[in-house]
Amino acid sequence: MNHYFSSLATAVQREALAVGLHTIVLTSNEDPATLDALVRGLSQHSIDGLLCVPLEESRAAVEDVASAMPVVLIDRSLPGSALPAVTSDPVPGVSAAVELLARRELTPIGYLSGPLDTSTGRERLDALTAAVAAVGLPPQHIYHGGYQEEQGVQGAEALLRQGVRTLFAGDSMMTVGVLRACHGQGLRIPEDIAVVGFDPHPAFELQPRPITIIDQHADAMASLAFGLLLQLMEKGPPGGRRHLRTTTTLIERESTDTGGEV
Fold it and tell me: Where is the Transcriptional regulator LacI/GalR-like sensor domain (predicted)?
């Protein structure tokens, strides 16, 4: 399982156990058909509520099951859906990262974007585009990938061929792929290539030069989402659509420290 989602599930389980509830974790591996089958299958069992990381291709299945039980979307939202959601706001973390890279002259930036049919993929790319413009840089190099390690490898290789100075991955799995690509080419981090990743991962701190990341604060997201789900289970839906946001924070480490800050 994706380490970020494993952390999110663990945090949700901790919240549930604190109030005497138990959790079942199901994973779709980003496959819409699998998510459809899992979600529709839940309606045939005695489930009190669902926290769901949605895929837009599975909107119908998710909204159908919401007629049978309380549902809260977590990590991603569905545009135009009335379902409550808890997601992170990428702007603070992405803006801080771009400002750091510009200040240290670690440009051009090669950004590995998540799928644009996910709210996270779109919002993070939009945040990067706005942050780049805000510091007066021209448009940077973009690789449109997926939330998979192999996409990180392929994206890093493609962006390195374009002569980027920093590889900035839009999720933790692509960050792992970026590190594989850099090590495979014998590149020194940050002397040859700077790296910015997304989400905490033990491997990022164990690198010879630990990796700068953007933290979505999975514990806070889990707490908000579970609290909202518990409210729906106990009291029913509140008036109006609920979309809560957690912040993102840049955690600066050595992978962006070349000693050349100006």
Answer: 98-256
